[in-house]
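Support request, please re-run this one:
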Amino acid sequence: MQIDWQGVMPAVTTKFTSDDKLDLEMFEVNILAQVEAGVSAIILGGTLGEASTLSHEEKKALIIETVRIVNGKIPVIINVAEQTTKRAIEAAKVAEECGAKALMMLPPMRYKANDYETVTYFKTVANSTKLPIMIYNNPVDYGIEVTLDMLGELIECENIQAIKESTRDISNVTRIKSRFGDRLKVLTGVDTLGLESILMGADGWVAGLVCAFPAETVAIYKLAKAGRIDEAISIYRWFLPLLELDINPQLVQNIKLAEVATGIGTENVRAPRLPLQGDERKRVLKIIKEGVSSRPVLPEYKLL
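Re-run finished. Output below.
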């Protein structure tokens, strides 16, 4: 399957039962809601997916199950976030064997690699697989920035095709597009810059609150790309208080609470994460309640 690297791509949460096993039944409910809303791909194993807490077998099971659920309608993308080059190559191999169609790759975990080491890491993994790759650039959370010069070296690998832009610098969309044109697709990775990035030319949106509000997220993207900017802005203004739940250390707990409110998820997280407590829980629930009670009526957006 060809990856177009455009549209809305949810970084989905992993669903757990109350006794800490994979909840594949609720997981399917959510994935089907994403497909119905018109997302372009499903991304597994990111921060929202609590990937660092998943076993090797659980990751395989999630890929296989997602491939079954989407049934060829959209591609499944697996995030690769490993501490060693060897483990990253192994993860890419397993992803391909289990039916994933692309990779999203972070720089090496824990070790703060320099520019040369980071480029070598990405290139080595890219050269080990035929799967197309989206580089995840998030120096705010992971401490390593993939610069324009580094990207210039990385695109020597034909299967490095896109970048998830999460520097929080909206001008980076323009910088990347100006330098690389269509050779490198740009997907925004920050929910609170979603519409702004699309209007500045981003090809897609790797989204978080889409996990709870798939239709609204896709509608914003489609309307913006169709030039119906005022309609997109109107929905986005409603959405912003919810989107701000994504730029928070407890984004997983926040978004899972939102999924509960919209009927397509559960609150269960895996330790060391714990459900929100006290005043913070009340604050988040208030935002979610207000958002759900005022959900906008969406225009027909799917065929835009």
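The chain has a mean pLDDT of 96. The first helix runs from residue 24 to 37.
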